[in-house]
Specification:
Elements: E1 8-11, H1 14-25, E2 34-36, E3 41-43, H2 46-59, E4 62-70, E5 76-84, E6 89-95, H3 103-122, H4 133-136, H5 163-175, H6 180-191, H7 201-218
Antiparallel strand pairs: 1-6, 2-3, 4-5, 5-6
Helix pairs in contact: 2-3, 5-7
Length: 222
């Protein structure tokens, strides 16, 4: 297993630490403005998080800088640096775990890590606390599907060329403004597929219900 390193450095003078204490004391309650349809929970989007917290940081002479970097062992990381106008700074690295080696996967990992790191630096919870439920859930080992009993047909993937079914799912996705990468990740985590075309009839119906519930949580009306 590859070693995971998360380095943190502090070169903070009294001006930085005092400014950070004042800034955190004035941090607003940041609303959870986005929906995760897979876990059916709300979270704070990166744009909203930055818009609500940056003015407070800047007022105290603070800024947060984030950029992708490479650790000493060659691992891709997100580096988050808090700097003060008088020169003090503190930084930390968070590992970037990539499901595949392409720029889309890297971009998605960076955005995800930026949200967690920015919220942590500001002392804000951007996610619903699930008491570690998702962290301890074990992913079931793949098993060979049992052959259907004689005379019983094995359920086949739904034919997404059906215009009505396809339009219904895509309309819901558009209404809740679900990013393509997040949708693909939710499909893979929930149903083990990366395309709507590979869903079975039951999975497609379940997906519609999940999207409808996400739409309600988001308060989207049509």
């Amino acid at each position: 297993m590859r070693e995971v390193v998360s380095a943190a450095t502090i070169d903070a003078d009294s001006a930085l630490t005092a400014a950070l204490v004042r800034a955190q004391a004035k941090m607003p309650a940041v609303e959870k403005d986005a929906i995760n349809p897979h876990f059916r929970s709300k979270f704070t989007s990166l744009d909203h998080l930055i818009a609500r917290t940056r003015p407070v940081l800047n007022e105290e002479g603070l800024a947060i800088v984030q950029f992708p970097a490479v650790s000493d062992i060659g691992q891709p990381v997100l580096r988050t640096v808090i700097v003060h106008e008088q020169g003090g700074q503190m930084s930390a690295d968070a590992p970037l775990f990539l499901p595949k080696q392409d720029m889309q996967a890297l971009g998605s990992a960076i955005s995800y890590a930026r949200r967690y790191a920015w919220a942590s630096a500001c002392g804000i919870a951007s996610e619903t606390d699930d008491d570690g439920e998702q962290a301890v859930k074990a992913k079931p080992e793949p098993t060979q599907a049992a052959a259907p009993p004689p005379g019983e047909k094995k359920e086949q993937p739904v034919n997404m060329s059906d215009a009505r079914q396809k339009a219904q799912i895509h309309a819901l996705i558009d209404e809740i403004k679900l990013p393509d990468e997040q949708y693909r990740q939710a499909l893979e985590a929930t149903y083990g597929v990366t395309s709507s075309a590979d869903l079975t009839q039951d999975q497609a119906r379940d997906l519609v219900e999940r999207l409808r519930e996400a739409k309600k949580l988001a308060g989207v009306t049509t």
